[in-house]
Amino acid sequence: MKTRVVIMAGGEGSRLGVLTAKRTKPAVPFAGKYRIIDFTLSNCVNSGIFDVMILAQYRPHSLIEHIGSGVPWDLDRNFTGGVLLYTPYKARGSSEWYLGTADAVQQNFMFIKRGSPDHILILSGDHIYTMQYDAMIDFHVKNQADLTIAAIRVPESEASRYGILGMDQENRITEFVEKPLAPPSNMANMGVYLFKTSLLNEALWEDHNSSDSTHDFGKDILPRMVAKGKRVYGYPYQGYWVDVGTVASYWQAHMDLLVTPPPIDLNNRSWIIHTRTEERPPVWIASGSIILDSMITDGCVIEQGARIERSVLSPGVMVSSGAIVRESVILTDTNIGAGASVEHTIIDKKARVGENAHIGKIGSGDQLNITMIGKSLTNAATKGIIISIARMFGLSP
């Protein structure tokens, strides 16, 4: 059985604010040294799948540079798979930007079906999780399924945010409702779809010719296949999974990595999260500094008297003498000035925080606010002033 992976990586990710102002969501840095898409790509190669296509659209430059020829993931292959990255193109006649997830796959299907794969595994490039896709493929084949959808239980209070599945005792899906106001269950669609190639081809053409379709898998393709009585199964997943498409989920996913034990063990040598990295010197930590429950990446400099608590520092971050960083995510080559205080803040690459500045933790009562600072912003805060750069996002504790 031959399986080809198609990763949807074209999302604008507007809900991530300044983090996606200059890059697509899957290319957003995560957990110090990674990009979000690294988790999906690593799931593929760790599952023994090396035939991968990536469909990009919005601001793909950082993504293209990061993927390159696929060497970090052992995807620099020619005859046995490899990684290929496709962007929208102008064809003769009428053609346009992708109208939805299904339209993106349909426009590229002549490339996707090349080589006659038996199955197409469609994945999102902006989720954080570890999953054995080969086990899902075995489940799919055993049940002679036309389509298998990975499913996870979510809190009932959040079920209305997801596509919700109704499943019988044999895990066959009997109902699919996209973001219902009154969810019939709390079994949610993870955005991981395994299709028989022939059935996917049929479904895409039907959707393409439908004038009232939004050309989306969750809104159109999947409910239609269930309604038609196709053999659609749910593959139960019980691990950690999060769509880091909002400021709240992005920040919380980082905080999740700092608990003991973490929901995803980045030190697990049997399931390596591969990525493209640059050479950086070792971390330098001066005497008198304090670091608690934090992740510090290569090239960081922590000067005397600095204090880091429950934070993630990406490569090359400098925290100057007496500065405090609490429950924050600091991206590459940012400089925190001496005596500055940074709390509940996400700072993009190459920003500069002034001496004795105070950023974040602006709010009252039990409201938790996340302050965001954009890429390459200099003098992000001037001396002694409490500010909120760009947008400030209120979160429930």
Outline the structure in words:
With 397 residues, this protein is an alpha/beta fold. The chain has two domains: 3-256, Alpha-Beta Complex (Spore Coat Polysaccharide Biosynthesis Protein SpsA, Chain A); 284-395, 3 Solenoid (UDP N-Acetylglucosamine Acyltransferase, domain 1). Helices cover 18% and strands 28% of the residues. The chain has eight helices and 30 strands. The strands form seven sheets. Strands 5-4-1-6-11-8-12 form a seven-stranded mixed sheet, with helices on both faces. It has a six-stranded parallel sheet with strand order 15-18-21-24-27-29, with no helix packed on it. Strand 2 (29-30) and strand 3 form a beta hairpin. Helix 3 (101-107) crosses helix 6 (197-208).
Distance between the termini: 47 Å
Helix share, percent? 10-25%
What is the 3D form? globular
The CATH class name of the largest domain reads Alpha Beta
| Rg estimate, integer Å | 22 Å
Spatial strand order of the main sheet:
5-4-1-6-11-8-12
Mean pLDDT across every amino acid position:
89
Question: Please, how many domains?
Answer: 2
User: At CATH's second level, what is the architecture of the largest domain?
Assistant: Alpha-Beta Complex
Number of strands: 30
- Strand portion: 25-35%
Write the CATH homologous superfamily of the largest domain.
Spore Coat Polysaccharide Biosynthesis Protein SpsA, Chain A
CATH topology category name of the largest domain: Spore Coat Polysaccharide Biosynthesis Protein SpsA, Chain A
Largest sheet: 7 strands, mixed
Please tally the helical runs, counting DSSP H or I stretches of 4 or more residues.
8
Helix- and strand-based class? Answer: alpha/beta
Low-confidence stretches: 382-397
